[in-house]
Design brief:
By secondary structure, this protein is mainly alpha-helical. The protein is built from seven helices and two strands; from the N terminus they run H-H-H-E-E-H-H-H-H. Helix content is about 75%, strand content about 0%.
Length: about 260
Amino acid sequence: MQLNVVIWYFFFYAVIGYLVEVAYCSILQHRLVNRGFLYGPWLPIYGIGALVIAACTRPFAEYALVVFLATMALTSLVEYITSVALERFFGLRLWDYSGYRFNFRGRVCLKNTVLFGLLGLSLVYAIHPAIQALLAMMDLRAQEVGAHVIVLLLGIDTTASSLGMVSFTTLLERYHRRKGEIEERLAALAASAQARLLIEHLKEERHELLESLVARSRSILSRFPSLTSQSEERRGHLRTLRERLGHILEEHGNDEK
């Protein structure tokens, strides 16, 4: 299989995965929900998963049950590896299924695995043949140029999104460090009546730190509602961010009324 064709397959499946994920989450939350690590309308994990499924299930494509079970296993493996890799790189777990029944270390869960199995059946017997036919109608030159454009767009998006996530983790760590310093000084000043002005100033600074972090992390928190960390301190900060963001959204909704 030519590399250009593989790139196009990856692109189509990443976009389709994004649309499915957004539709599913938006229906559950009764509002439009943007999803995904990247800024663009594509989810690479779906592109990778679909390519793996299409390649690995080809020898036994006539057996639907085997395709279903193989898809469940393959997508769970891809999701688990992706979760571990992203957490090691950013220090944050971008999704957490700990609240779901039959989950494995919060990285994969039976519910999603079954849904991926059903998507795998749709992919093998409907979506992949349709995309194969579509690409067969494309001119080879168009395939080549389009593949280069796709790689360029994904490269730019991946770089920008990675820098954004690194910036967020840096801000979170800075907030954690400065918040701890402020609270230590507040505790030391609590018994001093002459320190009231400084106490108020420190409390105001702590509040401004939180507001700044909420403003700059709103997009990431909305795309990853189960974002968490192995660090107890970071988990607490993320809960605080979500609570503050919830209050802001509620106040905004009341203002619109």
